[in-house]
Structure prediction request, 179 residues.
Amino acid sequence: MVREWCDRQSPFVLWGVLGDVGMTDVWDMMEGKCDSVSAVGYPVTSGYPLTTKTVPTREAYIERWGESPISFAAIAYDVVRFILPDAMRRAGTAEPEALVETLEKTNVETSSARRFVFTSSHDTMVGENPNDPEADYMLVCYFQWQDGVQVLVYPQELMEATGVTYTFPDWPGPWDNLD
Prediction:
């Protein structure tokens, strides 16, 4: 899809939950045709130090796998490295029934949240604004490919803090009329 979008010079931006676009080798695989494409991710993807666990998690993942973790890998790592061990420690067991009760009371720092908490309906707590870098709960980010590098482009506060600017495709489109 990304190649087709680029080859056709489609007059729209391409962003969203694009799992493969978050992979570190996608730039080479797509011969740079993913330039200006944005995909959802988490702070650990870029190494933005949201929590005390974010950068060490990223470094451990890169050391083990040789690349930065994409969004699903980052969340899975948080589950097996921080959330489940915390629940087992508090429950004093790995028995499923005890773990369920303990998980319902989870409040632990992970690479993606200062306070990883489940709601009463067992969803992930994201707070009133899931894209507020000052919030304690899950922070969802967008990363954009720019000249072979994934850069953080959303939330805007983090984009500005890292000195990045959102870019548009280099072909004509409605972005040419933005002021």
